[in-house]
Amino acid sequence: MPSSSSSSSSSPSAEQQRRSRSATRSKSPARKAAASAAGGATTTTRSPSRSRSSTNNEQSSPVRRRTVPAASSAAATGTPTQNADTLAAPGAGSGAGSASGSESRGGRTPLVASKRTPASHSSAATSRGLKTTATTATTTTISAALRAVEHTAYEFGGPVGCLSIMVVSHVILYYVYYALHFNGGNMYAPTSLADVGHAASQLVQATTPTAATLAFYVAFVVVEGVFACVLPGLDLLGRPDDKGDRLVYRCNGLLSWYLTLVGIAIAFYKPAYEYLFQLEHSPLVWYYDNMGRMMSTAVLAGNGVALACYVYGRAANMTHRMTGSVIYDFFMGAILHPRIGLLDFKFFAEIRISWYLLFINTVSCVAKLASEDKPVPPSLYLLVLAHGLYANATAKGEHYVPPTWDMFYEKFGWMLSFWNFAGVPFLYCLQSVYLVTHDPEYSVATVVALAVILLAAYYIWDTAQSQKNHFRLEREGTVVKRWTFPNLPWRTLTNPKVIETASGSPLLVDGWWQFARKIHYSCDICFALIWGLSCGFGHFLPYFYVIFFTSMILHRYDRDMTRCALKYGKDWDRYLEAVPYAFIPGIF
Q1: Could you check whether the bond before residue 338 is cis, i.e. omega within 30 degrees of 0?
Q2: Domain contains 321
Q3: Whole-angstrom distance, CA of residue 248 vs CA of residue 237
Q4: Would strands 116-117 and 497-499 be described as parallel, antiparallel, or unpaired?
Q5: How many other C-beta atoms are found inside a 10 Å radius of the C-beta of residue 564?
Q6: Distance (Å, rounded) from C-alpha 330 to C-alpha 576?
Q7: Which residues contact 157 (CB under 8 A, 6 or more apart)?
Q8: For residues 109 and 78, is the Cβ–Cβ distance under 8 A?
Q9: Distance (Å, whole) CA 255 – CA 484
Q10: Where is the sequence biased in composition, kind Low complexity (predicted)?
Q11: What's the CA gap between 359 and 424, in Å, rounded?
C-alpha cells in the first residue's frame, strides 16, 4: 500500500503526538481506530495556506456559504462531493492497488461511449494540468484509517451473523407467504412438529418452481437486460477503479420503465391481451396465482447469481477486500463490478429488477380481484401509486447512481443479489397481497389522507435526494440536464451552505439537509408505515415490514456514522453540531 503522505515523518513531532493522544482519547471507537491508523499525519500534509484557512474556518462559524463552480478544485484533488451517507472509497487519491481492495479516484466524470476510459484520461487533474493539493494526502491518511478498520472488523456480526441473516431471510419470505395464503393473514405459530410438517408440505406444493415460472422470470430478466444495453440513453462514467479506468454505465432507465409499463398495461387491459395474444385471462392473473412459484424462482436466481459471481471472482482473480472467511466473503461479495459488456449486474439489479417486479406484483393483485369481479379496495390503488412512484424514482434518478458508494465500493455478494432479485419484490408486496383478501373498508377521506401524507413524504424524499446528488455532480462539473417526471420544485440548490472539511469533501448543510442528517431515511420509514396503514388494524402482519425495514435502516445508519467519523475526523463533530438531528428535526 502506498504511503499516505510523502511529507509524513517517521518520528512524529510533539504537536503530532499531542493530536494523536487526543484522538485516541475520543469516546468514539471509530475515531480511536482512525487515530491509531492515521497518527498525526493529517497535521503535516496540509499546505500552510490550507492550514490557515482551516483554522480560521474552525474559529468562526462551522458553516459557510460557497458558490459551487462548474468544475471545482475537488475535481483536481480527486475527492468527490458526498453527503454524510455517501462516502469516499477507502484509498481515494492514493492509487492503492487491488491487493488492499481500495480504489483510486479521479475528478470530473465526462460522458463517453466506450466500455472503459483508460487511466490516462481518468483524472481531471491530469487532463487539465491542474496541480493536486496536499488535501489529497490528508484524504489518503483518513482513508488509510478506514482500510485499517475494515480489514480488522467484520460487519453484520461476522461469519456467524452473515450465515444467520442468509438463513433468516429465506425463512421470512416463506413465512410471510404462508401467513398470507394459508393462514388468513395471521401470524403463524405452529404448536407441534406435525404442524410444521403440514405447513412445509403446503409450501412445497405452492412454491415449487415450474417450467412456466422459470421461463417467465428468465424472459423478464433477459428483456430488461436487453433494454438496459440497447435502448438509447446517457453513457456515464463511474468512479475510477484501482487501475484508474472508469466503467461506463448506460442510463436509459426511464425508457426501459416506460416500455415495461406498456407491457404491464397490455397484460392488464382485456381487449389488448385478447387481441394481441388470444388469451382468455390476463397474464397478470396467472402471475398472481403462481406468485409463490415465482418467488421461489426469484430465490433461485438471487442465490444462483450470488454464487456465480463469487466463483467467477475467485477463479478470475477479480476479488476485492477478501477476509478468508468463505461465508462472510460470499455474503459481502468477492467481485466489485460483475458485468457482461455494458450490463452491470449490480447497477441492473438495484435499479431495474427489484422495483419493477415489486410493481408487477402489486398490479397483479388488482388484476386478480378484477378478474373475479370483486371490488378493489381503494387502499390497494394507493399501494399501486406508492410502488409506481418508487419504481419511477429509481428510473428517473438513475444517472445519480454511478458515482455512489453502492456502485464504487460495495461488492456484489449474496446480500445485494438475493434482496434485489427476490427479497425486495416478494417481501415488500405483502400489503398488496394482504388486501386481496382483506378490505379495511376505509372511507374515501381516510384513503385521501393517507395519499396526502404519502405524497408529502415523497416530495421531501425526492427533492432531498435530488439536492444532494445535484450538488455533488455540480461540484464535479458533471451535471446532466434531463427532463424527468415528476420534475419537482426545490430539487436543486443555488450557492448552498456547506462545511468544508480537511478531507476535501464538503458536507452539505442546506436545503432539506439542514434539518436532519438522514431525512430521506425518515421518508422511507414513512412510506413503509403508510403501506401498513393501508391495510387497517385487523392483523399485525402488514406492520411487520415497517418494523423490519426500520431495523435495517438503523443498522445502515450506524454503518454510515462509523465511516463518516473515520473519514471526516474533527470535521464530523462540527457537522453534528450544525445538524444535530438524525431523522426527525427537533425530535431525533
Answers
A1: no
A2: yes
A3: 5
A4: unpaired
A5: 23
A6: 35
A7: 164, 165
A8: no
A9: 11
A10: 1-15, 31-55
A11: 11
Q: What confidence score (pLDDT) does residue 406 get?
A: 82
β pairing state of 64-65 and 497-499:
antiparallel
Query: What single-letter amino acid sits at 125?
Result: A
Per-residue pLDDT of the chain (588 residues; tens, 9 = 90+): 433 333 333 344 444 444 444 444 344 444 444 344 333 333 333 333 333 333 333 333 444 454 333 333 333 333 333 333 333 322 333 333 333 333 333 333 333 333 444 443 333 333 333 333 333 333 444 444 444 444 456 888 899 999 999 999 999 999 999 999 999 999 999 989 999 999 999 999 999 999 999 999 999 999 999 999 999 998 888 887 767 788 899 999 999 999 999 999 999 988 888 888 888 889 999 999 999 999 999 999 999 999 999 999 999 888 888 888 999 999 999 998 898 888 999 999 998 999 999 999 999 999 999 999 999 999 999 999 999 999 999 999 898 888 888 888 889 999 999 999 999 999 999 999 999 999 999 999 999 999 999 999 999 999 999 999 889 888 877 777 777 888 899 999 999 999 999 988 899 999 999 999 999 999 999 999 999 999 999 999 999 999 999 998 998 899 889 889 988 999 999 999 999 999 999 888
Helix, strand, coil percentages for the chain (3-state, nearest 5) = 60, 5, 35
Q: What is the number of structural domains in the chain? A: 1
Q: pLDDT value at position 563?
A: 86
468, 572 Cβ separation under 8 angstroms: no
Contacts of 85-88 spanning 24+ positions with Cβ under 8 A: 85/405, 85/517, 85/518, 85/560, 86/404, 86/405, 86/468, 86/472, 87/405, 87/409, 87/560, 87/563, 87/564, 87/567, 88/139, 88/143, 88/503, 88/505, 88/567
Which residues are 339's β-sheet partners?
344
Residue 306's domain comprises 211-439
Are 78 and 108 in contact, with CB atoms under 8 Å apart?
A: no
Q: Which helix (H) or strand (E) holds 235?
A: strand 234-240
Answer whether residue 205 is part of any domain. Answer: no
Show Cβ contacts of residue 209 under 8 Å, excluding neighbours closer than 6 positions. 293, 294, 296, 297, 300
Alpha helices in 316-439 (DSSP H): 326-332, 345-348, 354-371, 378-396, 405-408, 414-418, 424-427, 430-437
Residues 383 and 245: beta-carbon distance below 8 Å: no
Question: How distant, in Å, are the alpha carbons of 37, 157, 303, 416, 454 from that of 160?
Answer: 27, 6, 18, 18, 38
CA distance 299 to 116: 32
Give the separation between CA 576 and CA 568, rounded to whole angstroms: 11
Residue 544 domain-assigned?
no
CB atoms near residue 586 (< 10 Å)? 8
pTM: 0.75
What's the CA gap between 67 and 472, in Å, rounded? 13
HEC assignment per residue over 184-196: CCCCCCCCCHHHH
Query: Is residue 451 within 8 Å of residue 385, measured between CB atoms?
Result: yes
Burial (0-12, 13-18, 19+ Cβ within 10 Å), 37: buried
112 Cβ contact list (under 8 Å, min separation 6) = 235, 237, 246, 248
Helix (H) or strand (E) holding 250: strand 246-251
Q: How far apart are CA 6 and CA 93, in angstroms?
A: 13
The reply to whether 382 falls in a domain is yes
